[in-house]
Amino acid sequence: MWTRMRDFDRMFQAMDVLQSRLNGLFQYYDRPRLPGAVWGLSESGPRANMYDTGDNIEIRLEVPGVKREDLSIKLQGNYLEIKGERRADTPEGYTSHRRERGESTFTRSFTLPADVDAAKVEATLRDGILTLVLSKAEPAKPKQILIS
């Protein structure tokens, strides 16, 4: 009789261990899969904010360590594509003992909420933030209609 009770006790202990391991499996389900992802969002590149100011669409993109000449911005209608590359910065004649900031590339693409006038695009890079001010095309701008 006591043997059967011990067997049941061991079985329930094993089930408790299995349940705690399964609970731990899904604890970090919504976090990026790659440890130390370079851009924070491992699948889609650097983080971005997009704002609509009425006449313009403004995009701010985090690109720390990326130089101005290593960025490529393409615009077609309401489709925007931004590519970038961060290169190794080991000085000539030096040997690396630790490299946590390696080389990496990214591509981000956006479907803009309106068509944009490509001739009036402004791009600035300051303190690791790429800021794009995209002027909306004339038909896409909001118009005030007066009631008579």
What's the helix and strand layout?
Blueprint: H1 2-25, E1 48-52, E2 56-62, E3 71-76, E4 79-86, E5 104-111, E6 122-126, E7 129-135
Antiparallel strand pairs: 1-2, 2-7, 3-4, 4-5, 6-7
Task: Give a verbal description of the structure.
Helices cover 16% and strands 31% of the residues. With 148 residues, the chain is an alpha+beta fold. It has two domains: 1-30; 41-90 and 102-139, Immunoglobulin-like (Sandwich). The strands form two sheets. Strands 1-2-7-6 form a four-stranded antiparallel beta sheet, with no helix packed on it. Strand 3 (71-76) and strand 4 form a beta hairpin. The protein is flat. The protein starts with a helix and ends in a 13-residue tail after the last strand. 10% of the residues are buried.
The CATH class of the largest domain turns out to be Mainly Beta
The shape is flat
Strand content is: 25-35%
The number of distinct β-strands equals 7
Give Rg in angstroms: 26 Å
Mean pLDDT score, rounded? Answer: 81
Number of helices: 1
Task: Give, in order, the helices and strands.
Answer: HEEEEEEE
What does the largest sheet look like?
4 strands, antiparallel
Report, as a whole number of angstroms, the end-to-end distance: 95 Å
Q: Level of helix content?
A: 10-25%
